[in-house]
Amino acid sequence: xxxxxxxxxxxxxxxxxxxxxxxxxxxxxVLLPASRRMSLAAQPVSHLALRWSRWVTTPAMLLVWGFGxxxxxxxxxxxxxxxxxxxxFVVLLSALHGVQSGALRRWAGGRQPSPVATRAGVAPLILxxxxxAAFLAVTKLG
Length: 142
Prior knowledge:
Layout: H1 6-35, H2 43-75, H3 81-108, H4 122-139
């Protein structure tokens, strides 16, 4: 068995970071809609979710971007349509993380999160974006 080359390690790190990032998005995407029905006794949950977002989800997002840009540079793919389409979905996921982070800060501060962040349809949107981005990356179609 040979030692994996740099590209394989970079791709594995990108996938691991993406799984962590999307896991955090999904957890927050399920928790925020539930926050509308939680009492003030659930306030510690908001602080835990905010801490997880700050210390796990956000760094994972930054690693996804860093490893992904390194892969695209190594593969000379910036002009390829599949990568441009994938980047659109990744930008959407990153923007959604920003909305979720703001909602977590409001919730942890004792205020109600914005209605946009507490919609129940966020988790399916996250999964759809992930599915399309993964499909484009694996097939390089477009």
